[in-house]
Amino acid sequence: MIKIVVLVLLFLGGAALLIAFNYTYSDGNRAGYIQKFSNKGWICKTHEGELAMTTVPGVAPILWSFSVSDPKVASQLSQIVGKRLVLHYKEYRYLPTTCFGETAYFVDHVEIVE
């Protein structure tokens, strides 16, 4: 009986992780300037950044924190820090640890705005 309960709990935990990693809560675009981008973490290294979104010049920007899991996108972002760009992101809620990223927002595509 205990084996069945443990097996059911493992199955439910695996199903919850499968849902958390494969279904997005939301996705969209944010425009602004990359203010900070770094590779951080003690054990699990993740790419983390901040996008400064300004509506009009002279107004304090709104900072939006994001994570990047794709090394190709991380390399592209590290080369264009300081330029105006549009980031496409997907939001994943309820990820179990910060080993995947410190935020729920994962950038998967970058467009430079001239």
Instruction: Give average pLDDT, whole number.
Output: 87
| CATH architectural name | Beta Barrel
- Which stretches are low in confidence, meaning pLDDT under 50 for 5 or more residues running? none
> What is the strand content?
35-45%
For the record, the count of structural domains works out to 1
Shape: elongated
CATH topology: OB fold (Dihydrolipoamide Acetyltransferase, E2P)
Number of helices: 2
Number of strands: 5
User: Rg, please?
Assistant: 18 Å
Major sheet size, sense and barrel closure: 5 strands, mixed, barrel
What is the top-level CATH class? Mainly Beta
State the secondary-structure class. alpha+beta
Task: Tell me about this structure.
With 114 residues, the chain is α+β, with helices and mostly antiparallel strands. It has a single domain (25-112), classed as Beta Barrel (OB fold (Dihydrolipoamide Acetyltransferase, E2P)), CATH 2.40.50. The protein is 26% helix and 40% strand. The chain is built from 2 helices and 5 strands, in the order H-E-E-E-H-E-E. The chain has helices at 2-22, 71-79, and strands at 26-40, 46-53, 62-68, 84-91, 105-112. The chain has a 5-stranded mixed β-barrel. The longest helix is centred in the N-terminal third of the chain and has 21 residues, at 2-22. It is elongated and about 65 Å long.
